[in-house]
Amino acid sequence: MLRALHWALALLFLLSGALAGSLYSILGVAKDASESDIKRAYRYHPDINPDESAHEKFIEVAKDSETRQIYDRGGEEGLKRHEERKAGGGDPFAQFFGGGRQEPPRGPSVVTNLEVHLADMYTGRTVEFNIPRRVICSHCNGSGAHSPAHIKQCGTCQGQGVVIQKHQVFPGMFTNVQMTCPHCNGQGQSITRQCGKCEGHRVVQTQNTLAINIPGGAPEGFEEVFHGEADESPDYDAGDVIVRVRSRRESSKEWTRKEAGLVGRVTLSVAEALLGFERNLTTLDGRVIPLARGGTTQPGEVEVIEGEGMPSYHDIPQGDMYIEYSVVMPTVVTDATRRKLLDVFSGSGLVRDEL
Fold this sequence. Notes:
InterPro entries: DnaJ_C, DnaJ_domain, DNJA1/2-like, HSP40/DnaJ_pept-bd, HSP_DnaJ_Cys-rich_dom, HSP_DnaJ_Cys-rich_dom_sf, J_dom_sf. Residues 124-207 form the CR-type domain. The chain has 355 residues and is an alpha+beta fold. It has helices at residues 2-14, 23-27, 35-43, 52-61, 67-86, 92-96, 118-123, 270-275, 335-345, and strands spanning 110-116, 125-136, 151-153, 162-170, 173-180, 189-191, 203-214, 222-226, 241-247, 255-258, 261-269, 277-282, 288-293, 302-305, 321-328. Helix 1 (2-14) runs parallel beside helix 3 (35-43) and helix 1 packs across helix 4 (52-61). The longest helix is centred in the first third of the chain and has 20 residues, at 67-86. Residues 10-21, 53-63 and 89-100 have low confidence and may be disordered.
């Protein structure tokens, strides 16, 4: 595919006025044409320069491996900006004083929060999600025009994007000030008929599907960066999408997280709290942990099970499990039950002063 790009771009720089048209339409091939199709269209094009030295020169100019991707993403304007950046030179003094080669402008990055089940962060999982994204219009390749024929050079600035205006500094003293062309807003061109797909906006709204790999034991706020997946524009390179993962607040309060620890809540009856109990506790990965206590359990008491919390993650060791016990009192006590309880607790003193 890269060699096909070389052939096509050689034609692009060879043909007069090619930058005003579509490379694919000039060659008469589809945008997803194969290498052999592009090469064949180039070879038999009637305007090909027969000079071998010129051919080699054009191949050298078009040797950038990212050029076709840049053209597909940003159209002719994106390709023009790419070539201008490459021509900036490598003079260290020019770079130091603000000249020379400059990095391409980047669009803003996007931060999005993704909520998942706590079990997904415990076991690890790959989650797909959608975010809105503006992408360069595929019909006009980001020009905003219905076709290349509907792009005209701005008559006010003669395609320069700037105009020179004379401003009075003092009486009898004037200075020339360079300003952005008000007619074309610095674009250097005007559009006589807008693209029917993007309505001249050069970008269209889509839904971008991304997939994030959440490792087991990932901390709250775990981040992954998707480079170049933010909004596209012909004027700049796409920024990044930064995804932050957090566990969802479930309606059931059975499991919660406290850093690397897992907190589970077990509700006991009065009989279980007094006489002991046996329970089976199902963990987030489906394992069963038996719980058994033979003595009394106080309301609010916490039992620690070491090594059963969140899995280790990088330098964060495996956490512990904390079981919080609560006791549910009966809402109604029958007379017979009350007499039995009085017999049991008669020696403990039911009436006493607190102060």
